[in-house]
Amino acid sequence: MSSGSDPNAILTALERAQDAFEMVGRGRTEFEKGISADTDWKTQLTKACRLLEVIEIIQLQDGYYIAVIELCFGAIERSIEAYALSMTDDTLQDFQDHQFSYDRAHQIGLFERDTAEAMKALYSDNRTESYYGGSRPTAEQAEAMTELAIAVHEFSVSQIREGGVCLCD
């Protein structure tokens, strides 16, 4: 892998990260509390809950708009995925493309076509630009995305037949 010129600190950290994701060699595995392991839809739903919780914590610090925006897009996608996984035969592998979530939200009746397309456009036009592009995120963008993420999450949770999984109360 390495030609021998890369810094040892990076190589050591890389190996540790690889081991951590493979869950080998580092003792007892400690999973994040609150993330359900029962089914894929519960896992995705509780990931969305935890992302929303972190968004709230970060916003109390003021000024971390890019982190808030990123987490909001993640919470939106996890919420849509939770609904799709719970109500259809979809699998997690179906959601490897970020924009697929928005297409699927309309296909399975979670959102009207215009709403799903507007969310997909919001993602493709603004998430990419705010993360990879030269734009600087604003407080207004972070606040608006938080409002959208919470609304999508609450609506998705309300449409899932099995209740009692959401951690957000």
Describe this structure in words.
It is a single chain. Helix content is 64%, strand content 0%. It contains 6 helices and no strands. α2 packs antiparallel against α3 (65-87) and α3 runs antiparallel to α5 (113-132). The N and C termini lie far apart (47 Å).
List the main descriptive attributes of the protein structure presented here.
169 residues; mainly alpha; 0% strand; globular
Query: What structural class do the secondary elements suggest?
Result: mainly alpha
Name the helicity range: 55-70%
**Average pLDDT across residues?**
91
What count of helical segments does DSSP give? 6
Flag low-confidence runs: none
Offer a concise description of the structure.
By secondary structure, this protein is an all-alpha fold.
